[in-house]
Amino acid sequence: MEKVITVDEKKEYLLSRERYTFEDLVILVEVLRSEKGCPWDREQTHKSIRKDLIEETYEVIEAIDTDDPILMREELGDLLLQIVFHACIGKEDNEFDVSDVTNDICVKLIHRHPHVFGDVKADTSEKVLSNWEKIKSDEKDRRTVTDKLKAIPPMLPALMRAEKVGKKAKCFDFADAEGVMLKVHEEIGEFEEAYRENDKASMQEEMGDLLLTLTSLCRKTGIDPEVALNNATNKFISRFEKVENAVIEREMDIESMTMTELDAIWDEIKHK
Fold it and tell me: What is the pTM of this model?
């Protein structure tokens, strides 16, 4: 019979360690969730920390995008904590534990890499991805394209979800970028019509169609819409900062200035 280790023994063990392992992290979370642990940690559920998992994921992405290995190390640790935390809750509910999580991902990876662990041939990344999608569809019993479209998580960022839907539905797609650009102009026209009629419901619908078509244009031209929009947003913030700094130097209030005045300042900055 496996010896039961008390919370106090776990605490003593953790305090004696000079360097920690994955198994130590699991023990640490168990201590935090125990009656002798942290009240906040003990109160959490899968649902209550759902948003934390999302936020930590985006913070990892920020570390990747800024090419900061020190920050990446920290943020990956925060993300790993979320995974272990959910596994600990699953264990308490007698649903699954961290060993089930690690076992299942190992089984999945071995099964989806028959070119490594079997006799399937896959000499290129394209072939690997093709095999992966086929195996995944077989595992999930997704027989139709619609099955695959519905399987794309609806909680994904809208642009990312639209891009994935477009890729999966490539059999019902524009022939080329030129065709998409014609459709973009058409959708703009339909939005303008709804706008002139002040039809809010139609405006929302047509804007959705326009954004979806723009993701198709990104796909056809090899542009990641999430990256493109993030870069544009960053550029706007940078430009706004320059304008605001110029306004502050002139001891003016940016909130009370007209767009014409701000545009004039921006033009001065651009010329410099």
Answer: 0.72
